[in-house]
Specification:
Layout lengths: L24 H8 L11 E4 L2 E4 L16 H7 L1 H16 L1 H7 L1 E3 H4 L5 H22 L6 H6 L9 E8 L7 H5 L2 E3 L3 E2 L11 E7 L2 E7 L17 E3 L1 E3 L4 H11 L4 H9 L7
Parallel strand pairs: 4-10
Antiparallel strand pairs: 1-2, 3-9, 4-8, 5-7, 6-7, 7-8
Helix pairs in contact: 3-6, 9-10
Length: 273
Amino acid sequence: MDETTNKPCWICGAPSDSREHIFKKSDFVRRYGNLPFKHIGGMLHFKNRKCRNVPSPKSKIASYDPIICSNCNNNKSQPWDRAYEIFEKWIFANSQLIFDNRFIPLELVYDDETYTYQCPNLYKYFVKAFGCRLASIDFPVPKDLVSLLDEEYFQTGLRLCFSINRTTFAMLPNDRDNLLGVGDLYRIDSKSKGVMERYSWFIDIGWLRIWFFYLDEVPCGLGAHWTSDSACLYLGEFESATLDELIEGAKNENAPILAHLENLKQNGGIKIK
């Protein structure tokens, strides 16, 4: 594809010539290494009830079509990407502390001297992830999200929430921490006003779910909403499926995990630990 047919980069408007990973490449590499996935027995990608093989962390299956330019992806957004990498590594190295306290102290994630500018960088990483999701299906990225990427202080309609997915604790520990997933993107329109820029979406990183609510109400229980305005992320909790539902599904599919799930139920159910 030449530059005359490329979509404009949603951040700066230059021709898009770079693929952004749907998940951060470091998420794959930290869990599975940088080699082709056949060395761990392979990896599967599930979407719309269809399954495809993912050859390696560099696979196009794990990235969007070009919707961003090389400069924005490789230079401008690097501080945001780095802030996320530090964050992701810290939360899985300190999971028990988080489970006990139910909050993530960003001054510990980064340190007392850097968290004041790393918090906006982390927020901007999630703005980038959300913007790429919108741009990938030709939805316009709201102007306040584009403009805040160049600002030190900003106001925005995007609120993030962080939750512990209780259901993942029915999984074996390695399977739970290695889980990566993205949810469906919902746009909430109005019968009277027509198409509106109101969205909800989520990303799953192991037991942690990051919710995105743009100009939409944040449901109770999912955690305190965050717009880079606090040094603590106060976590919510939810179940994506009950233990009984998991057991029923395992029975229907004759899945090997059935014995593990039934043992959990006999011993008091799912526990976050």
